[in-house]
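not sure who needs this but someone in the group chat was asking about Zinc metalloproteinase from Heligmosomoides polygyrus so here u go. i didnt clean anything up, its just raw.
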Amino acid sequence: MAGMLLVALFLALCAPVHTRGVYTELLRESSPFADVPSVDRYLTKLARLNEIQAKILGVRPSARDEIPFEDTPAKPDQLPYLFEGDILLTEGQMDSILMNTEDQLWGQNGNKRPKRSMTSNLYARWTVFPIPYFINTATGVSESAVLAGVARWTADTCITFKRQYSRTTTNGIEFFLGTGCYSMIGKVGGSQQISIGNGCTSLGTVTHEMGKSYRFLSQVTSGLNRLAASGHALGFYHEQSRYDRDSYVTIVSANIQNGYLSQFTKQSKSSMVDYGVGYDYGSVMHYDQFSFSQSSGQTIRTLDTNYQQTIGQREAPSFMDVKRINLAYCNALPCLNGGYTDPKNCAACRCPTGLGGTLCDRAAVNPSACGLGDLVAASTLQSISVSNAVTCSFVITAPAGRRVYYEVPKFIFSASNLCSYNFLEIKYVADIQRVGARYCT
């Protein structure tokens, strides 16, 4: 389009001493750990990772640096004995991450390490579909939450699932009620588990955890609490773990709880594949700004401050979350503005939020209460006003050689978690497939 385009949306150490609960949780049936010694090795490596990360972030050693392996975490997706709070790693995966982190520290000190033999595809992808899954209702897991998460991934991607009513003897997924929300990364083999614990039943969290298991990319999106779990199962790490995160966010190490620095480990470029889909502040896989905070201070700050309230959403997988998966399987049309071929209809594009048309070249169709979605900026300030519970999208184009100027008013929203469900979203950067800056206060 000529001129500027603006899219607006309304809407080696001694093994640490651990509590009994840690072993109970990590030695469940179908766990990747065979016995207590294997759990001890894992937790010792996690402690080592925490030490290395402290050096990378420039944090001085403290007597309180030991990871607090308490039984009951403050948040169900921030378990201290899991990687990044909600990822259960195999011993091989942990070794790879330790190797990567040691290399980062080595390079940071101006040294160049000899090349190591390390595959860029650390986590196996699922290759046989549909993926069998078992909802272990005997544990008390929310059946409806799991079904909603599965339905969301099925509707938005080429991935298919088939429910089974007993634990699979082949590769598959088992959903159960554990302590917190967590999953493994990618396809590990056998019946691998996803925990949808208390406080983990939102759509975003379930899809989030599922995304970790599927590893179609080495970084997949998580879902609302349910969707998030599935994101890891599909193979995604958290968004703020990307190798290029320093161009988008700052990790405020001074505000991170003692013993939790390892939760902010950065992955190497060789361990991630994103099909050219960049960093996404609005990813359902992104930590919120207060994750693992010790005093309610921000632990993550966006370099573009307009996106500070965007990170950490658990409403659903973002457009870019879903796009990463689908680019691997269905990509034929010349879609515009970041769109991609719809995996359910290869004659049309699936467009970023706010855009529509066959090739994503216009505004999405609005409800009648919103009015027309395609607007042209005038020389005088115009107002866009919307009331009641409605989602409206507007594409505002400036004449050639001109730019769009906008002002954001004060809002009065009545619901809680304002920037999750009620907000004004402005997409003003060139890459309008990304979730935009959100305003809610």
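also Residues 11-17, 114-122, 214-226 have pLDDT under 50 and may be disordered. if thats useful
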